[in-house]
Structures are given as C-alpha cells and as structure tokens.
Amino acid sequence: MKSLPSYLDDLPDVESLGARTAIDAYALRLRGFYHARAIWNRRFYRLSGVLVILTGAALPLLATLEYPGKTLVISLAGAIIALLTGLNAFYRWDQSWVLVRGTEITLTSAYWRWRTSNDADDIESAATQDFLTVLAEVRDHEATAFFKNLTFPSTTPLNPTTH
Questions:
Q1: Which of 36, 42, 85, 159 has the smallest number of Cβ neighbours within 10 A?
Q2: Among 7, 89, 93, 116, which residue's Cα sits nearest to residue 42?
Q3: For the residues 108-120, what does the mean pLDDT come to?
Q4: Residue 20 lies in a domain
C-alpha cells in the first residue's frame, strides 16, 4: 500500500536543474502529493462509512441476543460509531476527497497544457508563466475552499448584554 509521499519544503533548484526540469519536478511532486491525499481521503471516507453502517446495523442484533459481555459489546459498538462519525466530521474526508482530487485534476491538466506547449523550455515564456500562476492559484484555491467552512472562536460575545 502506497503512503503519502514525503513533501519537501525546499523547491527544486532552478539554477542546477534548469527551469524546465525544476518546474517539471515541482509540478509532478505537487500532483503526486494531491493524488496520494485524494486516495487516502477516499479510503478513510469509505472505510469509516462502511464500518458505521455495519456496526449500526448490527446493534439491534447485538441488543437482542444473550451472550457474556453484552453490555460491553453494545457500548463498544456505540463508541465505534461515535468515534468514526466524529473523525469523519472533523477531518471531512468526503469533502477533502473531492477537493484534493479536483486540485490534482486541475494540476494535471495545466501540467499537460504546459508540457505540450512549444514554449515550455523557456522560463520567460507566456506558457511557463501561466503554468506557474495556475500552480499557485490552484493551491491557494484548495486551501481557501478547505478552510472557508471552518468557524473560529470569536472574541466578541454572540449576545452581548448591555448594562
């Protein structure tokens, strides 16, 4: 099973690699990063959903049968459902899956447009500058879209009382 690729903080060195090779390496690394994240978010979303459904469906059966440790088993089943539901709500695996897959698709599309352009070898070309802009914009959009629905504590009371 493939895990998330290590994501290095440093950018490829344009001077030692050349512009096209450095941009190519960066774009492929980003694409691989988003691809792996999409795979893992899909796996977590599906696995947690299936486990919640199966455990929830088994609860009536577990409650009606007589067996040793019945109370513990029913409590564990409820805890599993609560835990998986809470994790899914916190990590938003479904939304993350869609978001990072969309980001990966956009990166791949922009990459192939740039790679097949006649000006891809020239760092000053319009095609290369457009590609670098798309890389920055798509990452910014992914971060903005992910965090837009988060609410942060307010320093202002919701219902201030006046005295």
A1: 159
A2: 93
A3: 87
A4: yes
Alpha carbon distance 86, 37 (integer Å): 20
User: Does residue 133 lie in a domain region?
Assistant: yes
Check pLDDT > 90 for residue 142.
Answer: no
Q: How far apart are CA 44 and CA 41, in angstroms?
A: 5
Range(s) of the domain holding residue 104: 15-147
Measured from the Cβ of residue 69, the count of other Cβ atoms closer than 10 Å reads 9
* Residue 60, domain member (yes or no): yes
109-138 exposure pattern, b = at least 16 Cβ within 10 A, e = fewer: ebbeebeebeebeeeebebbeebbebbeeb
- Using an 8 Å Cβ cutoff, are 104 and 38 in contact? yes
pLDDT at residue 153, as a whole number: 64
